[in-house]
Design a protein that fits this description.
The protein is of the alpha+beta class. The protein folds into two domains: 2-94, no CATH class; 98-135. Helix content is 25%, strand content 37%. The chain has two helices and six strands. The strands form two sheets. Strands 2-1-6 form a three-stranded antiparallel beta sheet, with no helix packed on it. Strand 1 and strand 2 (11-16) form a beta hairpin. The longest helix has 29 residues, at 100-128. It starts with a strand and ends with a helix.
C-alpha cells in the first residue's frame, strides 16, 4: 500500500496510509496577511496561520464505503519550518487520529446537518416566493 511519511524539521511525525484508501493527501495552507500589500483574510486580518493536514478517503465495496480519516493536523508551523513528505510502499502505517466508529458518527452527523441546511434553504426560498408558486 502507498504510505506518506511526514517529517517536520527532520523529525518523523506520522505515517499515513491504509489498504482501503482511494485518496491520500497532504495539504499545507497559509492564511492571513502574507505580504505587505495584503489586507489579510476575512477571518485573519493581521498575522498568519499555517495549517498542515495529512488525511485520506476510503473506497470500500462494503459499508461504510467512503470515510475521511485524518492522521495529522497542526496550525503550529511558521517561517523557517521544513515539511517533507516521503512516498513509500509498505504494509504498516500509524492509526488515524479517530476510530472508524467515530468517523462513521461524524460522517452521519455531517450528512444530517447538510440535509437540514438544504431543507431550511428550500423552505426559505419557498416562503420568499410563495406568491409565485400559489398562483
Amino acid at each position: 500500500m502507498r504510505i506518506y511519511e511526514l517529517y517536520i524539521n527532520g523529525e518523523l511525525i506520522s505515517t499515513a496510509g491504509a489498504d482501503d484508501l482511494c485518496v491520500l493527501s497532504q495539504t499545507l495552507s497559509a492564511v492571513g496577511k502574507l505580504g505587505e500589500s495584503s489586507n489579510g483574510a476575512s477571518r485573519l486580518r493581521e498575522g498568519e496561520e499555517i495549517e498542515l493536514t495529512l488525511g485520506g478517503l476510503t473506497s470500500r465495496t462494503s459499508e461504510p464505503s467512503n470515510l475521511h480519516f485524518m492522521w495529522f493536523r497542526t496550525k503550529a508551523l511558521g517561517v523557517g519550518d521544513e515539511v517533507t513528505i516521503r512516498i513509500v510502499e509498505g504494509s504498516k502505517a500509524d492509526r488515524p487520529l479517530e476510530s472508524e466508529a467515530d468517523a462513521v458518527e461524524r460522517a452521519t452527523q455531517q450528512h444530517e446537518e447538510f440535509d437540514r441546511r438544504r431543507y431550511e434553504d428550500a423552505k426559505q426560498y419557498y416562503l420568499e416566493n410563495k406568491d409565485r408558486f400559489d398562483s
